[in-house]
User: Which sequence fits this backbone?
């Protein structure tokens, strides 16, 4: 059967610097994104997620020359996002060799764009990123785009918005827990697992991962299609020293799979 | 003389990834976007991402549909990838009015798992090949532990005894066709161009097989 994809999430700023954010705020400079992508491709990662986190606020799409280089320096499946808001931009990104284009902010302005994009390019190529606040009590709130963007509004019910994305043809949902970003305290397991049970499309969790225990907690709760992480793959354990890594996590997960698959079949 | 290989370019393929993968083997395939582009070609790769109906229409309107079909029936080796694999069949549930190339007796259907908590659609990620036939030449030199490939599909083809022992399957609640070989016609549901060293080996195997058929 399918194994959960283990996905390094790389954030690129407006100056083409690789950064790691905390709670979508403070940024830690890590180095050159193309070099990092090249290293992760050498690790043969299951998939690589690259997001231009300044594109939407600067009113532009992730630059094509950058994505062209990204595709040239890598041979692994790529998901790319950042400010994409037209068919032409999606077409151009896919033509460069990107597997999936991640949409988010554009859907806050015009949700119907999702359905048109999925119809035109096929669901398998369209990923949607929802940014979520998960309070200790009460329902999780979700936004397309940044929750703190001008005019972002009070947020919608995560479950409702996720089901609307599924209905509109999203091929995958990437749920990013804003408050957990960069904190390395674990995923929002309960809310994500509840959502995964309601969805028929692949779900990828992002935000909060600091170690393998966090991944085990997440996957024991539910068979997620993908587990994405920033800090885990760019820092040395329990530090902020830059250390790109992947193989230990990959082999660790490989060992856990028989046990996890038993958990899922019995659930 | 080396093999002259073309990638069929009908506006619905992940062409640059396939070019990059073949480039790693020192190959520079040409692109075939109209019938005359196939004139001096002796093998083709048919890629594909997107919608079965749109792809079928695009092949028709470029004039490639019948030329490609005739050339392959006349013996030109072909490798179909993902939607390009499904287009080798007759029809797809994705577009009931559209026709495939009809080179293989198969039809694509929507994946509809019973257990949608475990089995999501699209079928997205790395899956292992099962029930490999004894004569699947595309898998030569790929050890069993490496027979894991990157898939991205919401439609699929059910295995059929017609193809035994020239097929391999994958499991997504039930069994589906991952790979099929019929003489000089080859198809894979997954993306060898994005499937690590084993994917490159598969492409290399196709090129060697194509050279044999030339």
Assistant:
């Amino acid at each position: 059967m399918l194994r959960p994809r283990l996905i390094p999430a790389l954030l690129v700023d407006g100056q083409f610097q690789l950064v790691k954010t905390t709670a979508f705020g403070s940024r830690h400079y890590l180095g050159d994104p193309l070099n990092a992508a090249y290293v992760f491709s050498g690790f043969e990662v299951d998939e690589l997620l690259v997001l231009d986190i300044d594109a939407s606020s600067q009113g532009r799409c992730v630059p094509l020359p950058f994505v062209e280089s990204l595709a040239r320096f890598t041979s692994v499946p790529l998901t790319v996002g950042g400010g994409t808001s037209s068919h032409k931009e999606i077409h151009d990104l896919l033509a460069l060799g990107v597997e999936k284009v991640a949409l988010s902010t554009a859907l806050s302005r015009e949700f119907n764009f999702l359905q048109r994009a999925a119809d035109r390019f096929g669901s398998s190529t369209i990923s949607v990123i929802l940014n979520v606040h998960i309070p200790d009590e009460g329902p999780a709130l979700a936004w397309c785009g940044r929750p703190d963007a001008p005019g972002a509004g009070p947020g919608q019910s995560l479950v409702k918005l996720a089901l609307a994305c599924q209905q509109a043809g999203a091929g995958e949902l990437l749920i990013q827990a804003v408050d957990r970003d960069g904190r390395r305290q674990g995923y929002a397991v309960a809310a994500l697992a509840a959502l995964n049970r309601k969805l028929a499309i692949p779900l990828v969790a992002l935000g909060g991962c600091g170690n393998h225990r966090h991944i085990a907690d997440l996957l024991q709760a539910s068979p997620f299609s993908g587990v994405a992480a920033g800090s885990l793959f760019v820092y040395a354990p329990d530090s902020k020293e830059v250390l790109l890594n992947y193989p230990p996590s990959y082999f660790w997960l490989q060992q856990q799979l028989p046990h996890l698959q038993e958990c899922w079949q019995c659930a | 003389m080396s093999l002259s290989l073309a990638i069929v370019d009908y506006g619905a393929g992940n062409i640059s990834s396939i070019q990059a993968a073949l480039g790693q083997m020192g190959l520079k395939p040409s692109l075939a976007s109209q019938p005359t582009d196939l004139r001096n070609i002796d093998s083709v790769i048919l890629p594909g991402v997107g919608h079965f109906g749109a792809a079928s229409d695009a092949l028709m309107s470029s004039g490639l549909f019948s030329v490609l079909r005739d050339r392959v029936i006349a013996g030109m080796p072909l490798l179909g990838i993902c939607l390009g694999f499904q287009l080798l069949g007759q029809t797809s549930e994705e577009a009931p009015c559209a026709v495939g190339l009809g080179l293989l007796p198969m039809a694509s259907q929507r994946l509809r798992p019973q257990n949608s908590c475990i089995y999501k659609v699209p079928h997205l990620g790395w899956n292992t090949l099962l029930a490999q036939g004894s004569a699947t030449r595309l898998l030569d030199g790929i050890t069993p532990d490496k027979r894991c490939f990157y898939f991205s599909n919401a439609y699929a083809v059910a295995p059929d005894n017609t193809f035994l022992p020239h097929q391999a399957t994958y499991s997504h609640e039930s069994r589906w066709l991952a790979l099929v070989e019929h003489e000089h016609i080859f198809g894979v549901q997954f993306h060898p161009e994005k499937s690590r060293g084993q994917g490159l080996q598969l492409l290399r195997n196709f090129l060697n097989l194509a050279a044999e058929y030339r």
In short: Chain B is about 25% helix and 25% strand. Chain B has one domain: 5-213.
